[in-house]
Amino acid sequence: MIFRLASVNDLCAIKTIYESIVENMNQNNIHIWNEYYPFECFEGDINSQRLYVLEENSDIVAACALCDSNEAENAMEWENKEAKALYIDRLGVNVNYQGKGYGSLLIKNAIEVARNNRFEYLRLFVVDINQPAICLYEKNGFKRLDGIYEEKINENVTLKEYAYEKRILEVNSK
Question: Where are the domains of the chain?
Answer without folding.
Answer: 2-167
